């Protein structure tokens, strides 16, 4: 069963459209990472308060981020790999059309 009704609005949140929800979904990681502007954060949080399906999705993404942080924290790449990556980054050339 889809969380969106056939008329394009989120189930349980009549004023929200599929496009508004898609916009939130695209921005959810900037909110979780604290990388969005204060204005955008306010807009996203207001949407979450008014749209249960998006709030549910946000909760899943928040849990996923916490799980990744728990399982991957503290691990560092071996120094040899880090040095090879630094070398490759320095050797990378960007070619642009003129």
Automatic annotation (TrEMBL):
UniProt xrefs under InterPro entries: Anit_sigma_mycothiol_RsrA (IPR024020), Znf_put (IPR027383)
Domain Putative zinc-finger: 21-54
Pfam name, any one: zf-HC2
Name recorded for this polypeptide: Anti-sigma factor RshA
Source organism of this protein record: Mycobacterium stomatepiae
């Amino acid at each position: 069963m889809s969380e969106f009704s056939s008329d394009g609005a989120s189930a349980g949140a009549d004023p929200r459209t599929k496009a508004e929800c898609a916009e939130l979904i695209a921005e959810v990681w900037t909110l979780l990472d604290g990388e969005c502007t204060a204005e955008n954060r306010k807009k996203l949080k207001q949407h979450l308060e008014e749209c249960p399906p998006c709030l549910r999705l946000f909760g899943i993404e928040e849990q996923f981020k916490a799980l990744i942080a728990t399982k991957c924290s503290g691990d560092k790449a071996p120094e040899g790999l880090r040095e090879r990556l630094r070398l490759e980054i320095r050797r990378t050339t960007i070619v642009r059309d003129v």
